[in-house]
Amino acid sequence: MTKGRLGLPSSDFHAAPGAPPVEWRIDDAPVPYAAAVAVMEARVAAIAAGTASELVWLLEHPPLYTAGTSARDTDLVEPQRFPVHRTGRGGQYTYHGPGQRVAYVMLDLNRRRPDLRAYVAALEAWIIATLDAFNVRGERREDRVGVWVRRPEKGEGVEDKIAAIGIRVRRWVSFHGISLNVEPDLSHFSGIVPCGITGHGVTSLVDLGQLVSLPEVDMQLRATFTAIFGPVESA
Prior knowledge:
Layout: E1 23-26, H1 33-49, E2 55-59, E3 64-67, E4 84-86, E5 93-96, E6 100-106, H2 116-132, E7 139-141, E8 144-150, E9 159-170, E10 173-181, E11 201-202, H3 214-229
Parallel strand pairs: 1-2, 3-4, 9-11
Antiparallel strand pairs: 2-6, 3-5, 6-10, 7-8, 8-9, 9-10
Helix pairs in contact: 2-3
């Protein structure tokens, strides 16, 4: 395994030399969840069939909760607060809404590395490297998927979650992906037990004092994605 900046994986998930670059798409208007899932389903089928390129799709959703395949009914604290979508991704309940950067990642892992555990670690590394560009130290935890930030000002051992990961793979083509809290309304997370984890809070870049915009975050996501997964199409 080669290591890049911050000791993170740098080439484990690069496509073979000469492979087409990954399409990089950004939607400015919030995308309804069901519409996004339909787009992903169609694109994954096309990637698997060899008729479409890989895609990273950056977007926001209107306020909503999603329930992954391991979601427990008791973790939906306020079922009437926002629409709830049952989804085929792994994981439990999470929140999506304005101010949160969602990145749906559709990669052909057959051409890269068909290893789900390593793929999740690479997504975590992508987020951690992005946060580092804003002087935020994100960390992974062996017993908790996602990326975490230590909050010593809140007390000894306190950690908040800043990014969630939930993936699905079909014929070794990935979809769903990550969500990074830039400036969402953090009170919206109180309607669920995020990812089924109690005893920890949630945070965002702005909550941590980093007054950054979504376009600024997108720029860093693009740069750090390229380091870990390989080239994307020209802007």
